[in-house]
Structures are given as C-alpha cells and as structure tokens.
Design a protein that fits this description.
Layout lengths: L20 E4 L2 E4 L3 H14 L3 E6 L1 H9 L1 H9 L2 E4 L2 H9 L10 H15 L2 E6 L4 H12 L4 E6 L8 H11 L3 E5 L4 H9 L7 E4 L3 H5 L8 H5 L3 H8 L4 H18 L3 H4 L3
Parallel strand pairs: 3-4, 3-8, 5-6, 5-7, 7-8
Antiparallel strand pairs: 1-2
Helix pairs in contact: 1-5, 2-3, 2-12
This protein binds uridine-5'-diphosphate.
The site of uridine-5'-diphosphate has 13 residues, from helix 9.
C-alpha cells in the first residue's frame, strides 16, 4: 500500500482553545475524556454555529493515507475523538497517550441524553430503510423526553443532496447524526453542513444498526480487551477486508511510519 501524506493547507482549529490534538500518521485526534467531549458538544450546540465531529478509528487513519479529500476533511473537523482500542494503543506507542475514547455508539447514547436534558432536537440520517426509525424508538424508550426531529435512510450519493438538505432544514434539528459509513458520511457532512443550519453534525457509522439491535455489539469485556475486531470477524466474516485495514495494516503503518516527524505533525 502506498503511504502518501502530503502537506495540505487545511487549517486545524480545535473547538476550544488549549485543546490538545495529537497526530497518528498525520490524522488529528483530540485528547478528551467522554465528559469533556460532551461539555464541548453542549457548548457547540448553544453557539448555533456549525460544528463537525468525527470519531476516528484505525480504518479512518488508513483511508486518510490514500484519500486526500478525506484527509483534508479530517483536518478541518472541529472535534476528533478516538474511536477504537487501536487508536489508544497507537497513541501510547507514539508517546502521546490519550485519556479516553468515544465511539460512535457511546457518543449517540450520550448525545441522546444531552438532547433529552436540554430539549435539543436530533435527526438520524442513514442506514438501511427502517433502521434509523428503529434506533430512534430505542433511544426514545430510554429517554422519553427526547425530541426526534426526523429519521431518514436516504443515500450518500450527491444527486440526493438537495432533497436531503431541504428535508433536514425543514425539521430544524440541533444535532444531525449521519450513518453512511466512512468515508462517505463525513464527506457528506463536509459538503452539506454550511447550508444545513445544524449546529452539530457527526458521522456515526454502523451505530443505528447496533442501537436498533440489527447487529449485535461485542460484549463489554471483549471491547475492553480490544478484541472487538475478532468478534466482528466471527459475526460478520464478510468484513474481513475491512478488518485487515483496521488491524494488521494499521499496526504496520504505525510501526513503520508513525514515529517519523512528517507523520507526527498535523497539516
Ligand atoms: N450505509 C447506508 N448507505 C450507504 C452505505 C452505508 O445507509 O450507501 C449504512 C449502512 O447501512 C450501515 C452504515 O452505513 O448502517 C455503515 O456501517 P459500518 O459498520 O460499515 O460503518 P463504519 O464501520 O464505517 O463505522
């Protein structure tokens, strides 16, 4: 695989001054605990200005090495959380340990609680037809105060964007969760956010599948051991190509290039 991190002119501007952002193979990740992330997201929503949160997992870092648009988008994100045990291990190996991780699923539960407490409206976009609705029902059963602005499967294809923008704007959400998988979901947000009038947008991958119960999540003990990938390999063997990117390829890239100064600096 070719590794090509070139300098870009992307402007890295963390959501809050003083935020520590580390680099793994040139991809920025903010050193924040789950509580700190939530506090920043609350402030972001209250500001009413658009913010983009990305949950960076090892596959994102591998994709960023060969996809310049994705790399630039990641550099411009307002907040980048560590999603995945591999990211924590790599950060420690590189001498820049992170204090916490926030996965897409955890983030969604926490955001649902925040929205319920504060009266923020949430929109769930993406996943197969019916899945976002099912996930919304599960979230609402847990947090009865939660206001669902809307749910829609739709498609990440650019020709659907005008319709989706109109749909989302009409429902006035404060938070937009987009589940089209990477890199499409975050590129979708980057292309559309300026005309959405939504203060917080985040790509959440397969989260709606997990929350709706369509796809079982690895038990907590397996997640804590960093073995979620093995569980996925057994439950969803068709993902083997992606698991190679997430585990051996990511590890090899970090060991081979991670400590080189060019990869330890942010664009
Ligand atoms: N998805 C979708 N439309 C597409 C491609 C994907 O709605 O054109 C959804 C898919 O149904 C799933 C999610 O995007 O719910 C991607 O899940 P995955 O676990 O692959 O996400 P990742 O591993 O990237 O977080």
């Amino acid at each position: 695989m070719m590794v090509a991190v070139e300098p870009t002119n992307a402007h890295v501007e963390p959501m809050t001054a003083g935020q520590r952002r580390i680099a793994i193979l040139g991809v920025g990740i903010d050193d924040l605990t789950e509580r700190e992330v939530l506090a920043r997201l609350d402030a972001a929503i209250r500001s009413r200005r658009p913010h983009h949160l990305v949950t960076v997992n090892p596959e994102f870092v591998v994709e960023a090495q060969v996809n310049p648009d994705f790399r630039t988008m990641l550099a411009r994100a307002d907040l980048a959380t560590a999603d995945g045990f591999g990211i924590l291990l790599a950060a420690r190996y590189l001498g820049t340990p992170l204090r916490g991780r926030v996965t897409g699923v955890d983030l969604t539960w926490q955001l649902a609680r925040l929205c319920a407490d504060r009266g923020y409206r949430i929109f769930l976009l993406g996943a197969a037809p019916g899945v976002a609705e099912a996930a919304a029902a599960v979230l609402q059963a847990r947090y009865p105060q939660l206001v669902i602005a809307g749910t829609y499967a739709g498609s990440p294809q650019p020709r659907h964007e005008p319709f989706l923008r109109q749909l989302i704007r009409a429902t006035h959400p404060d938070v937009l969760l987009v589940a089209y998988g990477h890199p499409q979901q975050d590129l979708w947000i980057a292309r559309n956010q300026s005309s959405l009038q939504v203060p917080l947008a985040a790509g959440v991958g397969g989260t709606f599948d997990y929350i709706s119960g369509r796809v079982p999540r690895a038990p907590a003990a397996i997640r804590r051991m960093g073995m979620e990938w093995a569980y996925r390999l057994i439950r969803q063997p068709q993902r083997w190509r992606r698991i190679i990117n997430a585990v051996p390829r990511f590890a090899w890239l970090v060991l081979r290039y991670g400590r080189q100064p060019a990869y330890q600096t942010l664009p």
